[in-house]
Amino acid sequence: MSAPEKERVRTQSVGDLLGDVTRDMSTLVRQEIQLAKAELREEAKSAAKAGGMFGGAALAGFLTILFVSYAAWWGLSNVMDQGWAALIVAAVWAVATAILAVAGRARLRQVRGVLPRTQETVRQVPGAIRDPIRDR
After folding, report:
1. 114-135: b or e for each residue (b if 16 or more CB lie within 10 Å)?
2. Where do the TM regions start and end (predicted)?
3. pTM for this structure?
């Protein structure tokens, strides 16, 4: 603490000092909340992208099964029984849908559920409060 700050502390009343501490704590809490909100916005964007990938996987799977499966089933039914042809086509598209779902799940796992910067600054708060008191 510098000499002017020490002099200011000596001349202030206890009420003024408590007011300063209260104001500083309020500012700190507001800043921590703002940081947490910013981090949550970033993570929500990543989660939204992963959700979009799941939606795309579902739509692609549906349209693929609807249009391509019929054509493949029809083509395979020329060389084998229709039942076996339908089963083969369904198995192929089930694998394709599973691959898309796994890719979306992997992307969703990249979303962190914790707020690392906020956690770090919150850990620093007790030290920041104690250190100025020790400097007196």
Report:
1. ebeebeebeeeeeeeeeeeeee
2. 50-72, 84-103
3. 0.38
In angstroms, the CA 127 to CA 131 distance is 6
Asked whether the beta carbons of 85 and 73 are under 8 A apart, the reply is yes
Q: Is the pLDDT of residue 49 over 60?
A: yes
How far apart are alpha carbons 7 and 46 in whole angstroms? 51
Domain boundaries, the chain: 3-134
Count of Cβ atoms closer than 10 Å to residue 47 Cβ: 15
Q: How far apart are CA 46 and CA 44, in angstroms?
A: 5
Of residues 7 and 135, the one with the higher pLDDT is: 7
Q: What is the pLDDT of residue 8?
A: 62
Residue whose tokens read 């500012």? 27
